[in-house]
Write a structure and sequence with these properties.
It comes from Streptomyces atratus. By secondary structure, the protein is of the alpha/beta class. It is built from eleven helices and 15 strands. Among the domains are: 1-62, Winged helix-like DNA-binding domain superfamily/Winged helix DNA-binding domain (Arc Repressor Mutant, subunit A); 186-318, Response regulator (Rossmann fold), CATH 3.40.50. The chain starts with a helix and ends in a 10-residue tail after the last strand.
Length: 363
């Protein structure tokens, strides 16, 4: 089977870590790839902060070497921490950034593997982290479907090093439930959004959401909980959202369903997961004669790019960077203990960032 880019990156990092430094041309020969491919790989890994690159050579970053200088107020621990994430962009870019900052402050080195939301590859990616010298792990599995934790999660509980789960809530009572974890409380974030719209004088808002990630699933369940807490009933079924670029017909169908709900008076407010979808929905609704916020008050979920919309979108902002930071601090603390300390489930609360898309309070 053809080697993937991620697997080749694992081998490249392993070679550099063993040697301390290497010429790019030598790495190309060792990896069995062209010099162009090796240079491209090196540029990508250097861009992630996983390698240092100077004049045709690469080296293992000095911050990870024993005795290397650490950041202000920290001492070098010489620890190597591994992080498995489903993506290095959008939501998880901030989680990774927070983890990297906390690792640097502790004098530790953070190395990264990306699964591209392919949970069947999580285990091999994590084994790559261990082979690269990781002494502790931050793990955000690439689960998407409800059955993924059972199908692709049991191996995590048997990892040979301390492990902290990130933004993942396993089934209560399962082996994974006994691991340390740090998560955003998405149910609380949805409640903030629904309550804000109701306080502005709207009835229960519609939910338009994806169903292709743990965050999306948590937003959907949080919506039902929020309506129950506030004594409200959903104006209609959840509108299933899909990426416009991947399924344009299904996206158009979802937008038309939202437009019909607005024009028929079923709802005057909506919560949309995620930001990118929300921006595209607002643009398409405008083409169809539905204005935000005049005709529809709208809140987005994630707050990655919501502020950049033509009409800046009010958004729920999960504490992504803080999740990465607290998880890394917990892992470093766990590695410094001889054992016996109780496991911890740390839940962080999202914030609501109010902008223009909800409009003023209704008369």
């Amino acid at each position: 089977m053809r080697e993937s880019a991620a697997e080749r990156h694992d081998r490249l990092l392993g070679l550099v870590r063993e040697r301390g430094s290497a010429r790019v041309s030598d790495l190309a020969s060792q990896l069995g790839v062209s010099p162009v491919t090796a240079r491209r790989d090196v540029e990508e890994l250097a861009g992630r902060g996983l390698l240092d690159r100077v004049h045709g050579s690469v080296s293992w970053p000095q911050e990870s070497a024993p005795g290397a200088a650490a950041g202000p107020g920290s001492t070098s621990s010489g620890l190597v921490l591994g992080m498995l994430a489903p993506s290095s962009t959008y939501y998880f870019a901030e989680v990774i950034r927070g983890a990297h900052e906390a690792a640097a402050k502790a004098g530790a080195r953070l190395i990264l593997r990306i699964s591209d939301y392919r949970p069947q590859e999580d285990q091999s990616r994590t084994e790559g982290l261990l082979s690269a010298g990781a002494e502790g792990l931050l793990v955000a599995p690439g689960w998407q479907d409800p059955g993924d934790p059972a199908a692709f999660g049991d191996w995590i509980a048997s990892l040979p090093v301390p492990t902290v789960l990130l933004e993942r809530r396993p089934t209560a009572g399962s082996p994974l439930d006994g691991l340390d974890r740090v998560c955003s409380d998405h149910a609380h974030g949805v409640l903030l959004a629904v309550r804000h719209l109701v306080d502005l004088g709207h009835g229960a808002p519609l939910l338009m959401a994806r169903a292709d990630s743990p965050t999306a699933v948590a937003v959907r369940s949080g919506y039902a909980e929020a309506l129950a807490v506030l004594g409200l009933r959903a104006p209609q079924d959840v509108i299933d959202s899909v990426p416009a670029e991947l399924a344009p017909d299904a996206f158009e169908q979802a937008v038309q369903a939202l437009r019909e709900a607005v024009l028929s008076g079923v709802a005057t407010a909506a919560l949309i997961h995620n930001d990118v979808d929300a921006i595209q929905v607002v643009q398409r609704l405008a083409e169809l004669g539905v204005r935000v916020p005049e005709d529809l008050a709208l809140i987005a979920y994630d707050d990655e790019v919501a502020a950049l919309a033509d009409t800046p979108l009010t958004a729920v902002a999960p504490p992504k960077r803080e999740v990465g930071r607290h998880a890394t601090e917990l892992l470093v603390e766990r590695l410094g203990r001889s054992g016996g300390a109780p496991r911890r489930h740390l839940t962080l609360l999202p914030q609501l960032r109010v902008r223009d898309s909800c409009g003023a309070r209704l008369p």
